[in-house]
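#dry-run=false #mode=assembly
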Amino acid sequence: MLYDAIGPRTRRRIRIGTGLATVAVLGLVAFALARLGSHGQLEGERWRKLADPDLRSLLGTALGNTLKAAALAMLLSTAVGALLAVGRLSLHTWIRVPVGIFVEFFRGLPLLLLILFAALGLPQLGLSFSVLWYLVIGLTAYNGAVLAEIFRAGILSIDRGQREAGLAIGLRPTQVLWIILVPQAVRRMLPALISQLVTLLKDTSLGFVIAYPELLRTGQGAVEFLGSRYALQIYLAVAAIYIVVNYALSSLARWLDRRQQRRYGSGTASAVAIDPEDVLSNPDPAAASR
Amino acid sequence: MDAIFGNLDLYLRGFLETLRLSVLAAAGSLLLGTLLAAFRVSPIPPLRALGATYVEIVRNTPLTVVFFLLAFGLPQVGLTLGFYAAAVAALTLYTAAFVCEVVRSGINSVSTGQAEAARAIGFTFPQTLRHVVLPQAFRTVVPPLGNIYIAMVKNSAIAGAFGVSELLGVGKRLTVTNPDAVIEVLLGVGVAYLVLTLSLGLFFGVLERRVAIAH
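#status=ok
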């Protein structure tokens, strides 16, 4: 808190500020509405189009396609990410180094490029799939690498004593990893994992580039079919669907984070940021304990 | 390989265009994001609500949808931006939400004693934020900011799908003219992006060490 224990003068200043800010925000809203109204965007007819049963079932199918691509990519990239994380933590240099290069390579490329590569490059190598799979392959290549780093950060964030204790009682390094480190790490990185899955869900909208019939592409098709006079309404509806789905997922992440803090004390949770970017910025345990 | 080395000038132009797009959007989103963060920690409820609503909506909307709304929705209310301006605006608006959250976490990490001391010597809230809290907050958020900007450079590729001739746009065009060298062309684009993202990573690493607060 930057402003606790306020006195009467500050209180008055805040009241004035609140008044001014309210007027400013309302003014902004009024301006936007006036702008929309003067171009006929508020006409009931344009908005009633969204209730059109054909358009609804179209967008419903499209949401299904979006969720299907997202679910497949989530499952595959979690599996790929776990394998890569284990590979990067391997004690053998000949596994660790190539996996590290692989991860850094895919993490550093734009996702859109990977999707294009899957759709245009793979057929040249004699590997042809449906559009859905091109999208899923692109998403998996990128998110697998990103999740690998989240998993690795999670495993490295476990206190060193845990690993040492495991080795001391005679477990093999692989056993230590799966029996002792992974169960603790999973709890810690769950919020970061879900947050990355929200990003993945948003990224399925890149499927429009390769004509996968997901939400955005379908919205675009509907606008082309019905005429651009419905562009604003349809794209806003598409945005609203994404926001609702993602908000539900983010709320789940927040709830898990809170539950974890209640259960294991804030000590465990503070080492884990809900944002995967925060976790990635602190990949080595020495930095985390600083 | 001819597809790459025969078109080096096109690649270079695309590279510079990506750079320009990224610099513009980075500057814009840093300003807007910091402003939103200031809103979110301010004592004025409507501003806090505005900042929170903005972040919640924008973070849950795909960048491509933001792009579509600006490029195809705004012309419906008489505001035609053109694809390049729409790309800069979409990247700025989208990235600002993430910058806001990072800066806010930086502000929260500055010890409360700092703000109390500033108040004790008579600073107002904006003065406290500007002269005392934000300069310290920025130092602590260099690594996450770096990650956001690396992600933003990669996100700028979406503009290529709308006919802006930055790196990916150039690559897409070259795959049409060199249909039998698709893999080489896209690998060339990938290498150019890796040059950008890896050097940005190095830059932020150096910056982090330079501004780190010694304990």
